[in-house]
């Protein structure tokens, strides 16, 4: 059977690789495998209305009923699915991809992305076209649910010290990327007593303000607004607001692992012997924080869905990714940009320090990333010789090979889509990081020659 789900749901170009027919049939397959009441939502992308109507038609035809929450962040839908007693959730989104993309994410009854096994069942039905077709009297119905966004905001507020944040009267600029983060975070921040200035807050699938990925190069307007209005912090979301990136009062964009580390310090120190779950691509900063808090790290493969499932399985206190994705299980075992934003302003309020000063208190590391081209036919064969070459070294082999040194590490992983391996390195100086990345490259080249 072919595959239709990628590492994070289905994502493809609108009316090109992702057609209405395909979304309709995929939804018929989803409704065949997960039959019951299904909540749906979408972000502001082009095609969101078109595809969500196809999703509704497909699901209803199998006898499912639908609760349409309207546009909201992916983690908002994930939060609502178990609270509405739904068997599943379907989000129409392509997260941070370019504007020409859209896609679907499917969640189970617990609000967490379905497993690979369930994806496989849905794919089988999709390719065999073995859809359930409901009898005329069993076709489902559509309900709306008007208070999903306020329920979600209340859910987030339960996990932060609201009076302490309100007392500080912070000024925040929220850049919602012309998408669904704008429906939540400005209201959440206002209810936390902040003065809120909104940027790119009109929902618009052309993304006129900036590209939906919150990279520093896309946040120049946010940085300059934060500086010019004298705000305490800037908050930027990606297209479906499961991530938040922060800008300090000087307009400097924080690295994702820095905001994650600030939250980790606070969460892990609440309890002795906490557990932190993070992909092997995360760096030393997170290890230092965990060591200092006497917490244990469980490494996983790269990918937010893997982290979510590991959190559910282990009951760990926190999950996080180096791109700024933070998973706070008492709220949701999935990344949540608005929850992350509430946690950062809580830390600023309680510590009563500017973000830049909080970040200065963290250890500093330097990193480098390169791509090493590999003949397509050798890409998947490389792991074995690399394991052989590195067998005497301290390493983690959960996803690619990560070599651990006293003052740094280097990770070698095959690209999911391109004929290349990626090499990431991190160390206490830029020179050492550059040397480690070269070492990774030479190991890959030696391995190519061994095949
Ligand atoms: Mg996202």
Would you give an account of this structure?
This protein has 451 residues and is α/β, with parallel strands linked by helices. It folds into three domains: 10-146, Alpha-D-Glucose-1,6-Bisphosphate, Chain A, domain 3, CATH 3.40.120.10; 152-360, Alpha-D-Glucose-1,6-Bisphosphate, Chain A, domain 3; 366-450, Alpha-D-phosphohexomutase, C-terminal domain (TATA-Binding Protein). The protein has helices at residues 20-33, 48-61, 74-83, 116-128, 148-157, 162-168, 185-191, 220-229, 256-268, 284-292, 304-314, 337-351, 355-360, 383-389, 430-450, and strands at 10-13, 37-42, 65-71, 88-92, 101-107, 142-144, 171-175, 195-199, 233-237, 244-247, 275-279, 296-300, 318-320, 326-328, 332-335, 366-373, 395-396, 401-405, 408-414, 420-427. The strands form four sheets. A six-stranded mixed beta sheet has the order 1-5-4-2-3-6, sandwiched between helices. Strands 12-11-13-14-15 form a five-stranded mixed beta sheet, sandwiched between helices. Strand 13 and strand 14 form a beta hairpin. The two termini are 30 Å apart. The mean pLDDT is 96. The structure holds magnesium ion.
């Amino acid at each position: 059977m072919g595959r239709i789900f990628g590492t994070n749901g289905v994502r493809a170009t609108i009316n090109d690789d992702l057609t209405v027919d395909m979304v309709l049939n995929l939804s018929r397959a989803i409704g065949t495998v997960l039959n019951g009441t299904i909540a749906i939502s979408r972000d502001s992308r082009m095609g969101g209305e078109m595809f969500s109507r196809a999703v509704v038609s497909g699901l209803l035809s199998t006898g499912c009923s639908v609760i349409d929450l309207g546009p909201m962040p992916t983690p908002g839908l994930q939060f609502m699915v178990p609270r509405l007693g739904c068997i599943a959730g379907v989000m129409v989104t392509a997260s941070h991809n370019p504007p020409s993309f859209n896609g679907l994410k499917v969640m189970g009854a617990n609000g967490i992305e379905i497993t690979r096994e369930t994806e496989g069942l849905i794919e089988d039905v999709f390719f065999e076209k073995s859809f359930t077709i409901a009898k005329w009297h069993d076709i489902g119905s559509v309900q709306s649910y008007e208070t999903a966004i306020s329920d979600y905001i209340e859910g987030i507020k339960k996990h932060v010290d609201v009076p302490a944040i309100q007392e500080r009267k912070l000024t925040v600029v929220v850049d919602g990327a012309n998408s669904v983060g704008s429906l939540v975070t400005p209201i959440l921040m206002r209810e936390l007593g902040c003065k809120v200035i909104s940027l790119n807050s009109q929902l618009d699938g052309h993304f006129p303000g900036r590209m939906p990925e919150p990279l520093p190069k896309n946040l120049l307007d946010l940085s300059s607004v934060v500086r010019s209005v004298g705000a305490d912090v800037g908050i930027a979301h990606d297209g479906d607001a499961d991530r938040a990136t922060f800008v300090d009062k000087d307009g400097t964009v924080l690295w994702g692992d820095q905001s994650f580390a600030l939250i980790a310090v606070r969460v892990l120190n609440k309890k002795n012997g906490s557990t932190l779950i993070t992909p092997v691509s995360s760096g030393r900063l997170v290890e230092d924080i965990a060591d200092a808090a006497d917490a244990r790290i469980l490494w996983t493969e790269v990918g937010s869905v893997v982290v979510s499932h590991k959190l559910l399985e282990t009951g760990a206190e926190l999950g996080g990714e180096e791109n700024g994705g933070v998973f706070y299980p008492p709220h949701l075992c999935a990344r949540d940009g608005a929850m992350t934003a509430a946690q950062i302003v809580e830390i600023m309020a309680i510590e009563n320090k500017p973000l830049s000063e909080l970040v200065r208190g963290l250890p500093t590391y330097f990193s480098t990333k390169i791509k090493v081209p590999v003949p397509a036919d050798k890409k998947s064969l490389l792991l074995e010789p690399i394991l052989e070459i590195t067998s005497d070294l301290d390493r983690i082999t959960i996803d690619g090979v990560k070599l651990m040194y006293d003052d740094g590490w280097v990770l070698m992983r095959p690209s999911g889509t391109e004929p290349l391996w990626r090499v990431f390195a991190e160390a206490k100086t830029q020179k050492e990081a550059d040397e480690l990345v070269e070492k990774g490259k030479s190991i890959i080249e030696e391995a190519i020659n061994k095949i």
